[in-house]
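Practice problem 4.
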């Protein structure tokens, strides 16, 4: 892995890292899982394309996902500040899948980013319906509806939905339609 990080400096798109991680990730055992996970988690701050690989380790029966609550929330928070959708969506998916607590500060930051994919994933977690509905009511319905880029939201959800259906990990497209239905009811 260290060698691929060095090579990646000349080809900064992350392809070398993804290849290296893909080669070793399925061979990680319970004794090395936390060390490899922490290494990948640290790289994921800079290369969001590595985030999906974390699920391979997190899905192992002996892996303690709750140990990384703070780091996952921090990654979401930072990526919401940088408007990086993938950097929010994957950790939110992990939080949902593995019942990891989602911090209020993280939720507020995601809502502030206006990222439709991340907001819909938070909505799907169910404990945070009120915050999302308040956001829809306060920020969207009461504001100029022409400012909402529904086409952009649809495109984002369609792309994410296609990827999710392909990987059978997240079905975000359904959340989009649920949000759209709620929005339409509030407008009428």
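Answer key:
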């Amino acid at each position: 892995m260290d060698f691929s990080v060095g090579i990646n400096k000349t080809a900064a798109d992350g392809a070398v890292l993804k290849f290296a991680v893909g080669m070793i990730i399925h061979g990680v055992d319970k004794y090395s899982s936390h060390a490899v996970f922490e290494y990948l988690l640290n790289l994921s701050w800079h290369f969001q394309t590595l985030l999906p690989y974390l699920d391979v380790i997190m899905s192992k029966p002996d892996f303690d996902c709750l140990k990384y609550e703070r780091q996952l929330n921090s990654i979401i928070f930072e990526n919401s500040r940088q408007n990086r959708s993938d950097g929010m969506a994957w950790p939110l998916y992990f939080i949902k899948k593995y019942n990891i607590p989602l911090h209020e500060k993280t939720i507020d930051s995601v809502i502030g980013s206006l990222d439709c994919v991340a907001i819909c994933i938070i909505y799907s977690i169910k404990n945070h319906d009120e915050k999302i509905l308040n956001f829809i009511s306060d920020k969207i319905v009461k504001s100029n509806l022409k400012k909402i880029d529904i086409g952009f939201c649809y495109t984002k959800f369609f792309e994410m939905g296609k990827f999710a259906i392909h990987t059978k990990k997240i079905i975000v497209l359904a959340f989009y339609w649920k949000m759209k239905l709620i929005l339409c009811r509030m407008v009428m």
